[in-house]
Structures are given as structure tokens and as C-alpha cells.
Known about the structure:
four-stranded mixed β-sheet
Amino acid sequence: MQRPIFTEEHDAFRGAVRTFLSKEVLPHYEQWEKDGIVSREAWLAAGRQGLLGLAVPEEYGGGGNADFRYSAVLAEEFTRAGAAGLALGLHNDIIGPYLTGLGTDEQKRRWLPGFCSGEIITAIAMTEPGAGSDLQGIRTTAEDKGDHWLVNGSKTFISNGILADLVVVVAKTTPDGGAKGLSLIVVERGAQGFERGRNLDKIGQKSQDTAELFFNDVRVPKENLLGELDGAFIHLMTNLAQERMGIAVAGIAAAEHLLEITTAYVKEREAFGRPLSKLQHIRFEIAEMATECAVTRAFLDRCIVDHSEGTLDAVHASMAKWWATELQKRVADRCLQLHGGYGYMTEYRVAKAFTDGRIQTIYGGTTEIMKEIIGRSLLA
Length: 380
């Protein structure tokens, strides 16, 4: 299908992203998978290429363009390349808005130039061993000690956890405030008492460092409060739509790419003396997936435009997230099946996509949470 949502500028940017992937990412990706982490040089290269801080004002070294379509291009191309480890979307689209939207002038001067150059890699620490989507379950505390915050607690499943130089920590600042007693406290690399645990061993996205973080009497300057005191809940809710859109965009891009490579495979692979594509069952499978992808693409492109124009609401972002990621999961399973035994071999792209993509229906809010948001809005 034609996609009229993109301009010549977006197409030129897509070409630049593909060049970056071919030169700076794909030649090293196998080694990053073995190491369980990407190189810092890749982040610096992304900064030099102008792929970091797309929406950050130019005065801080960013691109100065808040058009989400550029982020969509980035997500699509990284997904097609199978390069989930270099988490530019997390950096740009999830953490970036907190720094640009909530940061003081002093914080912006201190953090954003490095954010855009790749010298400062970021993470957000929300999930805890006993608290995932339920913010009321957060136990990490930030106690006001007059001239500093004293942070204690632990976090887990933190993307960029090993590499991060700057971690936005969701912590309890009002003990009896529940979800309304949380604040965003920025902890920087080198802070005494801030320790990193294991680089967690996942079934997919092996090159994406995902870590445990521990805070033991960490003294954090008072000026590292990001946004309003006890305002984390509102801040998080405000930015979740963009996070979920980024995941949804990757979901449909993955499904489309899996369909593309599987269509080519069944044309070449023979069984019983003829290509698999000559079997009616195979044609029906391809037809069903192609139709589901086309319908989903139409909805996602509409959501991309709406979000770029600032009109996308949380409900439709939740619809996009759960539908596109569940489609990705179904398509990955069906495409692996159509590859037969070869689909189970890690050297085949479909096998890697199967394991890399499984997390999509979980992080950023599970499918079940997305349905709850949607249902609550319709039945309130």
C-alpha cells in the first residue's frame, strides 16, 4: 500500500538511517549479541549522524523537530534490520520528552548536549521486583534530607541499565501518597551507593543490556528532581502514549517484514515436487496475514499522523499498542511454522524475530493493561 503520510524529507531520513545501520550497526551486531551489550561507540556514531535527540531544541544540539514521523521511520528501519539492541527509541521517544518537557533550564544545559551527542546514555527505572504496571506497589524511596535526596530501593528489567549514565528513577517521596506520592529523581553514573546488578539473560534482544539496579543510601542533589514533587504519576501518564506508539510502530513493521521474507521463502522452498506457494493452505495463510497487516497498517499510519499533530489520545494509543504487538506475535508464530524446521534455527531471521519480538506484548504496558484502559474508557 502507498503511504502518503511521509514527505520527501522523511524518505531522505529513511535513507540516512539505512546507511547508518549498514555501516555502524549490522557489521558489529553479532558480536554485540554475544557480549549482551552494544558498544558505546555506536551511540556516539548515532549522535554524529543526528539520530539522537530528534525533538530536542537545536540550542542543545538536537534536531529541533518534534514530528513523530521521524521517530516512526527510525523504529521501522531498526525493526526491519533486526537491530533491537541499540535502543534509540527508548532514548529519544521515552526519556527525551521527560528531559525536554520537565527539565529546568539548568537541567537541560547539563544533560541535553550529551543526550544528543551519545555521550550520555539514558534509562528510566520504574519496574521493581514486586511492582510492574502497578505504580502503587513501588517501594523505592527518595527521602528529603534538606540539601539532598536519599534514595533507597531496587529496580529490575531496566533497559540500558548497564550502559546508562543518567537514570530517571520513579521513587516514593510521600510515604502514604500511593501512586500520587511518587516523583522522578535523576540518578547519575558514579553516585555513591548506586550499583548495577546482573545484565539479565533474556530469551531475545540479546544485545540490549537489561539490568537490575540497586540504590543504597544514594545521595542525589535536590536539583535532580525532574518535574513536580509527587508529580510522577501525571508525568508518566502524559508520556505513555508516545512510548506505546513507538512499540506499536515496531510491531507492525516486524509483522510486515516477517510476511515479506516468508512470502519469498515459500516461493523457493519445495515440498512434494513443487513450491510451497502452490499449496492452497499456504496461500490462505499468506492471504490472511497480508490482510491483517494491511488493515493494521492503515490504523497505525492514522495514529502516527494524529500523534504527530498532537491529537492522539491514550485510548487509541493503547488500541494501537495491543493490536499491533499481538499481530506481530501471531505473524511471527505462523511464519516460523511455514519455515518448518529451518524456522527453528537461529541462523534464520524468522527465529530471531520470534524471540526478539515476544517482549512486545509485555513492556510498555501489557496487552491486558491496554484492554483495561480501553474498556474503562468505554464503560465508565
